[in-house]
């Protein structure tokens, strides 16, 4: 159980709190990136401020904000510091898992903990296997009758500082379950071995699970989610899309500021300021149009997702497919734009923009790293297959 936290009352309040939190994050983002510092205090403040409870159902006392609002919260936080913004991405996914597949008792207990400020990390992905769906971690009954969890995970964003670590494992029948494990439980070892060149403060490294005793009441039968059309995959993906779109906007704004305040004009331009050079204005106008298009696609995807959720507890294959495609398009395009803008601004800012003192390369490093989460090419393929052949995207957790 975490300490007390503010309970957010409405979508409007969620955005106000996000703006205040983003303002507090913005100034320290470059320093946290340079030092690859674990943002312990920042994450504690996130919990206290109430943003972690945004998607807890209203009947349990949560704000139950729309996806449109949650995505906008993510976009604004990511524009300030995408590393800190990515840490709770899986938190909301595992709140959603409890909402859809948890028992009433699990929802009351674990989501009550979330309202008090608890955060879910995650330990899902594994290295050394054939592909991301090839999983070795097992949750099996031991001779003494307890359930034991064994395996090694990587890409465990948020696990290092979480209250609970939801772990993907296969049970005795080879079915996918989520075991919600307290971070401090015996046999749980979260390493600080994350050395990526971007999203450095996410600390997305290894979690080792050795004979961890798991209480049966902390296990959720996640395989059930995929027996019917679902939007939980799209929900996780749209939060990633918001992070990329946030980075794109921040890179554009930082690039424009640098051109206004520091860049000098090229001698052939016959201008007093780089900010008056027609070619610079043209290129910023083109990049700005792409960022705004990415923001519009993101909002459209969030609205489509909200519509699928509002259509009932079990959306139709068509509603779920429409949401997944809209999210896939927003994520693939948003990621492409983030990488392009974060790179292109350097050609407009000039040589001194490469000075490490400005840390402007963090936008590109963060965008390039974060967009490796899962390949954009498959999003476009699913989209193309729908446009040409009318085929809905597959019903899995990564689209
Ligand atoms: C910043 C960031 C954060 C992420 N956070 C999460 C998260 O929180 N949760 C989540 O589920 N996913 C997360 N991911 C997604 C993760 O990228 C994918 O889930 C996936 O595991 C990557 O798979 P890949 O196919 O790209 O393989 P890669 O990870 O590129 O691996 C390629 C191959 O090399 C092998 N390999 C590489 N290094 C080692 C090693 N040291 N030891 C053994 N084998 C090795 C792998 O086994 C594999 O065969 C994150 C990704 C990024 C970029």
TrEMBL record:
<dbReference type="GO" id="GO:0004497">
    <property type="term" value="F:monooxygenase activity"/>
</dbReference>
<dbReference type="GO" id="GO:0008470">
    <property type="term" value="F:3-methylbutanoyl-CoA dehydrogenase activity"/>
</dbReference>
<protein>
    <recommendedName>
        <fullName>Dibenzothiophene monooxygenase</fullName>
        <ecNumber>1.14.14.21</ecNumber>
    </recommendedName>
</protein>
<dbReference type="GO" id="GO:0005737">
    <property type="term" value="C:cytoplasm"/>
</dbReference>
<keyword id="KW-0288">FMN</keyword>
<dbReference type="InterPro" id="IPR009100">
    <property type="entry name" value="AcylCoA_DH/oxidase_NM_dom_sf"/>
</dbReference>
<dbReference type="InterPro" id="IPR023922">
    <property type="entry name" value="S04_starv_induced_SfnB"/>
</dbReference>
<feature type="domain" description="Acyl-CoA dehydrogenase C-terminal">
    <location>
        <begin position="238"/>
        <end position="374"/>
    </location>
</feature>
<comment type="similarity">
    <text>Belongs to the DszC flavin monooxygenase family.</text>
</comment>
<dbReference type="GO" id="GO:0006552">
    <property type="term" value="P:L-leucine catabolic process"/>
</dbReference>
<keyword id="KW-0560">Oxidoreductase</keyword>
<dbReference type="Pfam" id="PF02771">
    <property type="entry name" value="Acyl-CoA_dh_N"/>
</dbReference>
<dbReference type="InterPro" id="IPR006091">
    <property type="entry name" value="Acyl-CoA_Oxase/DH_mid-dom"/>
</dbReference>
<keyword id="KW-0547">Nucleotide-binding</keyword>
<dbReference type="InterPro" id="IPR036250">
    <property type="entry name" value="AcylCo_DH-like_C"/>
</dbReference>
<dbReference type="InterPro" id="IPR037069">
    <property type="entry name" value="AcylCoA_DH/ox_N_sf"/>
</dbReference>
<dbReference type="Pfam" id="PF02770">
    <property type="entry name" value="Acyl-CoA_dh_M"/>
</dbReference>
<feature type="domain" description="Acyl-CoA oxidase/dehydrogenase middle">
    <location>
        <begin position="130"/>
        <end position="212"/>
    </location>
</feature>
<dbReference type="InterPro" id="IPR013786">
    <property type="entry name" value="AcylCoA_DH/ox_N"/>
</dbReference>
<keyword id="KW-0285">Flavoprotein</keyword>
<dbReference type="InterPro" id="IPR013107">
    <property type="entry name" value="Acyl-CoA_DH_C"/>
</dbReference>
<keyword id="KW-0503">Monooxygenase</keyword>
<dbReference type="GO" id="GO:0050660">
    <property type="term" value="F:flavin adenine dinucleotide binding"/>
</dbReference>
<feature type="domain" description="Acyl-CoA dehydrogenase/oxidase N-terminal">
    <location>
        <begin position="19"/>
        <end position="117"/>
    </location>
</feature>
<dbReference type="InterPro" id="IPR046373">
    <property type="entry name" value="Acyl-CoA_Oxase/DH_mid-dom_sf"/>
</dbReference>
<dbReference type="Pfam" id="PF08028">
    <property type="entry name" value="Acyl-CoA_dh_2"/>
</dbReference>
<comment type="pathway">
    <text>Sulfur metabolism; dibenzothiophene degradation.</text>
</comment>
């Amino acid at each position: 159980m975490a300490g007390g936290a503010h309970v957010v009352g409405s979508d409007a309040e969620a955005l106000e709190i996000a703006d205040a939190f983003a303002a507090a994050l913005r100034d320290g983002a470059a320093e946290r990136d340079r030092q690859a510092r674990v943002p312990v205090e920042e994450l504690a403040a996130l919990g206290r401020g109430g943003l972690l409870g945004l998607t807890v159902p209203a009947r349990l006392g949560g704000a139950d904000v729309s996806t449109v609002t949650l995505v906008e919260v993510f976009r604004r936080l990511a524009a300030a510091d995408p590393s800190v913004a990515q840490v709770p991405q899986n938190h909301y996914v595992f709140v959603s898992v409890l909402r859809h597949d948890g028992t009433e008792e699990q929802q009351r207990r674990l989501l009550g903990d979330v309202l008090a400020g608890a955060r879910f990390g995650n330990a899902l992905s594994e290295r050394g296997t054939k592909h991301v769906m090839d999983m070795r971690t097992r949750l099996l009954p031991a001779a003494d009758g307890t359930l034991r969890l064994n395996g090694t995970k990587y890409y465990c964003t948020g696990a290092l500082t979480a209250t609970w670590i939801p772990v993907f494992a296969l049970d005795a029948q080879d079915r996918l379950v989520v075991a919600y494990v307290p971070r401090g439980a015996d046999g749980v070892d979260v390493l600080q071995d994350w050395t990526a060149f971007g999203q450095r403060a996410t600390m997305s490294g290894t979690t080792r699970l050795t004979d961890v005793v798991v209480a049966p009441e902390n296990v959720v039968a996640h395989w059930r989610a995929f027996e019917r059309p679902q939007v939980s995959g799209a929900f996780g993906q749209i939060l990633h899309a918001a992070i990329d779109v946030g980075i794109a906007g921040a890179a554009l704004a930082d690039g424009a500021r640098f051109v206004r305040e520091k860049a000098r004009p090229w001698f052939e331009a016959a201008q007093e300021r780089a900010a008056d050079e027609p070619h610079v204005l043209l290129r910023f106008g083109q990049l700005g149009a792409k960022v705004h298009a990415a923001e519009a696609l993101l909002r459209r995807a969030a609205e489509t997702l909200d519509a699928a959720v509002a259509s009932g507890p079990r959306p139709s294959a068509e509603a779920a497919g429409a949401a997944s495609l809209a999210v896939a398009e927003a994520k693939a395009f948003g990621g492409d734009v983030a990488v392009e803008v974060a790179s292109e601004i350097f050609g407009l800012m000039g040589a001194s923009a490469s000075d490490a003192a400005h840390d402007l390369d963090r936008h590109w490093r963060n965008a390039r790293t974060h967009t490796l989460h899962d390949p954009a090419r498959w999003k476009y393929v699913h989209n193309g297959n729908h446009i040409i052949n009318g085929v809905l995207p597959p019903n899995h957790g990564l689209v």
